[in-house]
Write a structure and sequence with these properties.
72 residues; alpha+beta; five-stranded antiparallel β-sheet; 2 helices; 5 strands; 21% helix
Protein backbone atom coordinates (compact mmCIF):
# COMPACT_ATOMS: atom_id res chain seq x y z
CA UNK A 1 0.00 0.00 0.00
CA UNK A 2 1.31 3.42 -0.97
CA UNK A 3 1.60 5.91 1.88
CA UNK A 4 0.49 9.48 1.20
CA UNK A 5 2.57 12.41 2.47
CA UNK A 6 0.60 15.55 3.33
CA UNK A 7 1.93 18.66 1.61
CA UNK A 8 1.37 21.86 3.56
CA UNK A 9 3.68 24.22 1.67
CA UNK A 10 1.86 24.11 -1.68
CA UNK A 11 -1.31 25.78 -2.87
CA UNK A 12 -1.46 23.42 -5.85
CA UNK A 13 -1.46 19.99 -4.16
CA UNK A 14 -2.45 18.58 -0.77
CA UNK A 15 -0.66 15.21 -0.76
CA UNK A 16 1.75 13.06 -2.75
CA UNK A 17 2.97 9.48 -2.75
CA UNK A 18 5.49 7.35 -4.60
CA UNK A 19 4.83 3.83 -5.84
CA UNK A 20 8.36 2.47 -6.35
CA UNK A 21 7.18 -0.83 -7.82
CA UNK A 22 5.38 0.96 -10.67
CA UNK A 23 7.65 4.04 -10.73
CA UNK A 24 4.58 6.23 -10.30
CA UNK A 25 4.18 9.57 -8.55
CA UNK A 26 0.69 10.03 -7.15
CA UNK A 27 -0.66 13.52 -6.53
CA UNK A 28 -3.81 14.66 -4.72
CA UNK A 29 -5.18 18.09 -5.57
CA UNK A 30 -7.23 20.37 -3.28
CA UNK A 31 -10.51 19.26 -4.90
CA UNK A 32 -9.72 15.65 -3.92
CA UNK A 33 -8.88 14.51 -7.45
CA UNK A 34 -5.86 12.21 -7.66
CA UNK A 35 -3.54 11.72 -10.63
CA UNK A 36 -0.71 9.30 -11.30
CA UNK A 37 2.39 10.10 -13.32
CA UNK A 38 4.11 6.98 -14.69
CA UNK A 39 7.70 6.31 -15.70
CA UNK A 40 9.17 8.32 -12.83
CA UNK A 41 12.34 6.82 -11.35
CA UNK A 42 13.09 7.49 -7.71
CA UNK A 43 15.35 10.48 -8.49
CA UNK A 44 12.37 12.26 -10.12
CA UNK A 45 10.34 11.68 -6.93
CA UNK A 46 13.22 13.03 -4.85
CA UNK A 47 13.47 16.13 -7.06
CA UNK A 48 9.69 16.67 -6.82
CA UNK A 49 9.74 16.39 -3.02
CA UNK A 50 12.86 18.54 -2.48
CA UNK A 51 12.15 21.29 0.08
CA UNK A 52 12.52 24.28 -2.24
CA UNK A 53 10.76 22.77 -5.26
CA UNK A 54 7.54 24.42 -6.41
CA UNK A 55 5.19 21.44 -6.71
CA UNK A 56 2.90 23.17 -9.21
CA UNK A 57 5.77 24.27 -11.40
CA UNK A 58 7.37 20.80 -11.27
CA UNK A 59 4.08 19.17 -12.31
CA UNK A 60 3.73 21.60 -15.20
CA UNK A 61 7.34 21.43 -16.39
CA UNK A 62 8.21 17.78 -15.74
CA UNK A 63 5.38 15.48 -14.67
CA UNK A 64 2.84 16.58 -17.26
CA UNK A 65 5.30 15.33 -19.91
CA UNK A 66 5.13 11.81 -18.46
CA UNK A 67 2.32 9.37 -19.16
CA UNK A 68 -0.37 10.37 -16.68
CA UNK A 69 -3.98 9.64 -15.83
CA UNK A 70 -6.63 10.39 -13.27
CA UNK A 71 -7.04 7.79 -10.53
CA UNK A 72 -10.50 6.42 -9.84
Amino acid sequence: MTEWILIDDSSRITAAAYDAQNQAILVRFPDGVEWQYLGCPEHVWEDFMAPNTSKGRYISQVLNHQQHSRLM
